[in-house]
Design goal:
It is a multi-pass membrane protein. The protein has about 350 residues and is mainly α. It has eleven helices and six strands. The strands form three sheets. It has a two-stranded antiparallel ribbon. It binds zinc ion (2 copies).
Length: about 350
């Protein structure tokens, strides 16, 4: 058993070294290719809807809406298609372009030593409270950390990005397609961008599947001239690939939002859950307030900003600075009772094992 443990440790250390070496090579490549990737994303955003609008739509939904008025069934399906077409162009595309521009243009928030020191007093207050009990606490989930390259104390949820060469507030991941990290200040824009890409590309993919089959089967379809055939094949293939890839990322992000985690925290929390289980403790994410409230927290839905705000382009000003987190401060001393039930955050200071 000891030999197996030692062997596992050696393999893990070797893998760690390999990953670090790979990171040293890949990080500069990703950094240099960043502007190119943004240009490629912009090219996809322009060319896919253009191919649909100028080549496919005139031969499908727009043509039907002009020619089938005498047949009731066709009439309604044609007008629904026509409506979907204009909804896509006038609603989804402006939202998609706006949220992409904001994801690229708004900094996720870099940890600054000055801002960190001004928030230090409030941060230390929740750390001090956590010594009251021995159950899983916010301090165990978010212990005080510092970053060597940046020479700063890292606030909870912040991580160092080796590509951006900076500590990022509430870092989710580094996205090459926007050439920066997804973090505290641009995370909402990024998720909305994924949502509108998924909607637009799913629609375009579905609407261009028929023309694609025609052009795929016939090298010279009468409906489409030679140069248009290539555009039809490209529009369907590209929209299909983007809808699948971005759709999967969107669903993943929705799961993370509903559980109040970032991508990095998801992996850390899983490790921590296993570690705490071995210690006989139970893991509870102190940031999570239930799926619906987590969505409200993430998208800043309140009286001033209703859910309908997600349907139109609008700028977002985060109400918090990304250095301190109210839920963590409240949860500083949460306990787990004898039955393993989670005590209310409000009841701070209850020792572990005590009924709440
Ligand atoms: Zn750093
Ligand atoms: Zn980054």
């Amino acid at each position: 058993m000891q030999l197996l443990d030692r062997l596992t440790a050696v393999v893990m250390a070797a893998l760690d070294r390999l990953m670090n070496r790979l990171g040293d090579i890949l990080d500069p490549v990703i950094r240099w290719c960043g502007p190119l990737m943004v240009a490629l994303a912009a090219a996809l955003i322009v060319t896919i809807p253009s191919g649909y609008t100028w080549v496919i739509a005139p031969n499908t939904v727009l043509k039907f809406s002009q020619t089938t008025h005498d047949n009731d069934d066709f009439f309604w399906s044609a007008w629904l298609g026509w409506l979907a077409h204009w909804l896509l162009l006038l609603w989804a595309m402006p939202n998609l372009v706006f949220n992409f521009a904001m994801s690229v243009g708004v900094s996720p928030g870099r940890v600054s030593a000055v801002a960190m020191s001004s928030s230090a007093s409030s941060a230390s207050s929740y750390i001090a409270q956590t010594d009251l009990n021995s159950s899983a606490t916010a301090a165990e989930l978010y212990p005080p950390r510092s970053c060597q390259p940046c020479i700063v104390s890292k606030p909870p949820r912040a991580f160092h990005c080796t590509i951006c060469r900076s500590c990022i507030l509430k870092m989710d991941h580094h996205c090459p397609w926007i050439n920066q990290c997804v973090g505290h200040h641009n995370h909402v824009y990024f998720v909305l961008f994924l949502a509108y890409v998924t909607i637009a590309c799913s629609y375009i993919c579905a609407a261009s599947s028929g023309p694609f089959m025609v052009c795929f089967d016939s090298p010279n379809p009468p409906e489409y001239p030679d140069n248009a055939r290539g555009i039809v094949l490209y529009t369907f293939s590209a929209s299909f690939a983007v809808a699948v890839a971005v759709g999967a990322l969107f669903v993943w992000q929705l799961y993370l939002v509903s559980t109040a985690q970032t991508t990095i925290e998801y992996h850390r929390n899983n490790d921590l859950r296993a570690e705490l289980k071995r210690m006989g403790k139970r893991f509870v994410n102190p940031l999570s307030r239930g799926p619906v409230q987590n969505f409200r927290d993430f998208f800043l839905i309140d009286v001033k900003q209703p859910w309908s705000a997600l349907l139109y382009p609008h700028t977002i000003r985060m109400p918090t600075d990304g250095y301190t987190w109210a839920q963590l401060q409240k949860a500083g001393s949460f306990a787990v009772d004898a039955n393993g039930a989670y005590c209310d955050n409000v009841r701070v200071g209850i020792p572990a094992g005590v009924e709440c």
